[in-house]
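re: ur question from earlier - yeah i can do the single chain one, its not a big deal. heres the input i used so u can compare w yours
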Amino acid sequence: MAVQNQTQKNIFIRFLNINTSGQTGGRNLPLWRQLLLQLLAIVILVSVMFPIMYIVTLSFSSSEKRPSQLQLIPKEISFIAYERVLDKPTGNPVTFIELLRNSFVLSMGVGVVALGIAVTAAYAFSRFKFKMREVMMILVFIPLLMPAVGLSTPLYLLLNQVQVKQCKDKTTAIQPFTTCEDGSKGKLKFNLRDSLLGVGIAMTASALPFAVWNLKGYLDTIPRELEEAAAIDGADSNQTFWQIVIPLAIPQLAVTFFLGFIGHWQEFVLTWLFLSQPKDYTLAMTLYNMTGQYANSVPWNRFAAMAVIVALPVAIVYVALQKNIVGGLTTGSVKG
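and the output i got, formated as tokens:
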């Protein structure tokens, strides 16, 4: 009997130590470790998907009252919340199309401009030798150590100085460059701080440090031999940059743009502090406006529907850039 029990125990142990990696070489992955990893993955999946499923379910409800119980499977499929959000998101005189346009223009504009500036700066830090190179790289890195809201005050004061005013004599003054010659303060026509352009400038300034730091590390991994070979073939610096470096850096460019797009699309602090006109509001600002002072005053189904709509563009951008986010195109580009 003891021999039989020992035999069964040995069989069970061998079963748990079966190699599940599917590889003939390298490190084995025993079955027991594979089961633990699968269990951990399930726990992470549940913790991530639970709030998403709850919001999606709540968005299909026809009731605006606060839910009294957790519910992951919708009991009804009603699109009334989506219809009301698309028709009139809030009490402000602004349509959903205008909100979507503001968010899209701001996010895409900041993403493209920041990426264009960052890749050229990162290439200069990666390839060129110049004075105070290390010091300037540290100065680029320092803003990453500070919270974004900490940089909002100087940006607010700086952009608020740029104003366009109409003087009493019908002339135009652009402060701080010119003033009204008649001595009047003039009528405010445009304030850079209270505009999408001003917010875009502030968001670009906030996005550049991470973009430069992220791209510089990736460009360091691109072999210099490729650029030297292009130079031998007669390519100048611009041709090398656009035809050699940029195509190899596309995966990291996609990652940098995607991470920046998420932050730009969901940006709330700068837009809320800078913008005061409803026509310039973004989707993130509108989502916050839907929350009332008390929980019972929130239209919960419309709030959930708006949250789903705000999250959709991020998912679409990720699917569009998924192939380029993988990275590793430079592997094996230089053979010994």
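The mean pLDDT is 81. not sure if urs matches, ping me
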